[in-house]
Write a structure and sequence with these properties.
The structure is a single chain. With 396 residues, the protein is an alpha/beta fold. It has a 6-stranded parallel sheet, sandwiched between helices. Strands 7-8-9 form a 3-stranded antiparallel sheet, with helices on one face. The longest helix is centred in the middle third of the chain and has 24 residues. It contains 17 helices and 11 strands. The radius of gyration is 26 Å and the shape is elongated. Strand 7 and strand 8 form a beta hairpin.
C-alpha cells in the first residue's frame, strides 16, 4: 500500500507552490482533484510550450492528478464543492489572500461540512485575518519573495543582484505545505479532527536564510555577493580548466587544505604561506590564491583536475549545463528516470526523491484540462442530463 492511498485532496491551485505540494502528495498515492477554470485552467498551462507544446512548469508539477473544470463562483458549483469537501481529507489553495473565504472555503466554514478536513492555505505573506500584517494583500510572485526575504542581497556579484534560476520561493513554500500536511494527517489520527495550515512564502524563504541572518545578528555586515564562489570559505567555488571547462571544488578544513596543496596544486609550500595559513587569510587574499589555482589548472583538463581532487579526497563537481543533467551518469545508474503520459505523449520524469520501489509511489498522467470532469461528477451522483446542463451553462 502506498502511504497516502486512501487520502483525497481537493486543490484550487495555480502556478508552482501549491501544485508542487500536491504533486508530491499524489506521488505518495493520494487522489488529487485539481479544480481549474473552464476553458482556461491553471495559468501555468500557458507559461511556455517547450514540452512538445505543453508548459514545462505544468508538466513538472501536475502529474498524477485529476482535472475537474469548475466555475467556483457559479451557484451550481457550490453544491459540487460541498459534495467534494464532504469526502475530502485535505483542501489546498493558493488563491489571492481572502479569495477562499469569499468563496465560502475558509477553514471555519469547511469544518462545518467536514470536521476532519485539513485546510492548507498558501500565500505570499500569510493569510491570517486576526493578525494580517501590512503585507497580507500584496501580490507575491517568486522573484518578489526572493527580494523581500533578503535572498537577492546575498546572491549575485559585487555589481548586481541575481535571482535563483529556479522558483526557489515557490518550491520552499510547496515543501513546507507538503510536510505540514503530512504532519497534520498524523495528528488527525490521534485527535480525529482536522486543522488549518497557513504557509507563507516569505516565512518559508526567511527560514532558508538562516545562516546569513545569524551571520548579521549583531549588526555585522552581510556575507558579500561572490557569484558562484562561497562568501566566507575559500577556495570554494568554480575554477576553469585548460580544456575550457570548469570544476567546482570546496575546501572545508585545514587537513583538506594541506592535501589540496600537496596533491592537487603540487605546491606544498603554498599550504604554509602566511597569506593562506587558515581560512580567514585565504578569504582575505582570495584573488592571489585564485591566480595560483587558475595557473595550475590551465595545463590540465577537467578530467585530470577531478582525478587529482579525488585522489586528495577534496569535494568536487563538474559544472554541468542543463542538458548534461538529463544524461547524468549517477541518475542513469540509479535508474531514477521514468516516463509519464501527457496529452501529447510520453515524456521523462524523475522518480519521487527518496523512493525507489514502485510499490511506494505512483506516477500517473499529466491531465488535460477538464479531462476527469464527467467521471468525477458521475461519482458525485450527477446524471448525464445534469452534466450536460452544467457544461452548457459553462459551470464546468
Amino acid at each position: 500500500m502506498r502511504p497516502l492511498e486512501d487520502i483525497t485532496v481537493i486543490t484550487l491551485e495555480h502556478a508552482i507552490a501549491a501544485p508542487f505540494c500536491t504533486r508530491q502528495l499524489a506521488d505518495l498515492g493520494a487522489r488529487v482533484i485539481k479544480i481549474e477554470r473552464p476553458n482556461v485552467g491553471d495559468f501555468a498551462r500557458k507559461y511556455d510550450e517547450r514540452v512538445d507544446g505543453m508548459s514545462s512548469h505544468f508538466v513538472w508539477t501536475n502529474r498524477s492528478k485529476e482535472s475537474l473544470t469548475l466555475d467556483v463562483k457559479a451557484e451550481p458549483a457550490q453544491d459540487i464543492l460541498k459534495k467534494l469537501i464532504e469526502k475530502a481529507d485535505v483542501l489546498v489553495q493558493n488563491l489571492a489572500p481572502g479569495a477562499a473565504s469569499r468563496l465560502g472555503l475558509s477553514y471555519e466554514e469547511l469544518t462545518r461540512i467536514n470536521p476532519k478536513i485539513i485546510v492548507c492555505d498558501i500565500s505570499g505573506y500569510g493569510d491570517d485575518l486576526e493578525n494580517p500584517g501590512p503585507y497580507r494583500d500584496k501580490k507575491a510572485y517568486d522573484l518578489l519573495i526572493q527580494s523581500e526575504s533578503g535572498f537577492l542581497s546575498i546572491t549575485g556579484t559585487q555589481d548586481d543582484y541575481v535571482k535563483a534560476g529556479c522558483s526557489i520561493a515557490d518550491i520552499a513554500a510547496g515543501m513546507y505545505a507538503y510536510t505540514n500536511i503530512l504532519a497534520a494527517l498524523l495528528e488527525r489520527q490521534k485527535t480525529g479532527i482536522g486543522k488549518r495550515i497557513d504557509v507563507s512564502m516569505l516565512e518559508s524563504m526567511t527560514e532558508w536564510m538562516g545562516y546569513p541572518l545569524y551571520y548579521t545578528l549583531r549588526g555585522d555586515s552581510a556575507p558579500p555577493r561572490t557569484g558562484s564562489a562561497h562568501a566566507t570559505i575559500y577556495p570554494y567555488g568554480p575554477f576553469p580548466t585548460g580544456d575550457q571547462k570548469k570544476v567546482m571544488l570546496g575546501i572545508q578544513n585545514e587537513r583538506e587544505w594541506q592535501a589540496f596543496c600537496n596533491i592537487v596544486l603540487e605546491q606544498p609550500e603554498i599550504a604554509v604561506h602566511a597569506n593562506f595559513i587558515n581560512n580567514t587569510q585565504r578569504s582575505k587574499h582570495r584573488e592571489a590564491l585564485k591566480k595560483i589555482i587558475i595557473d595550475t589548472f590551465d595545463s590540465l583538463t577537467q578530467i585530470q583536475v577531478i582525478e587529482r581532487l579525488e585522489k586528495a579526497k577534496i569535494a568536487n563537481a563538474s559544472v554541468n549545463e542543463i542538458h548534461d543533467v538529463w544524461k547524468h551518469p549517477q541518475l542513469q545508474a540509479r535508474n531514477r528516470w521514468l516516463e509519464v503520459d501527457t496529452p501529447i505523449g510520453k515524456v521523462p520524469t524523475l522518480k519521487p526523491v527518496g523512493l525507489n520501489s514502485e510499490g511506494d509511489f505512483v506516477i500517473k498522467a499529466v491531465p488535460d484540462l477538464g479531462e476527469h470532469s464527467v467521471d468525477i461528477l458521475k461519482e458525485l451522483g450527477y446524471d448525464a442530463n445534469s452534466i450536460e446542463a452544467l457544461s452548457l451553462n459553462s459551470v464546468i
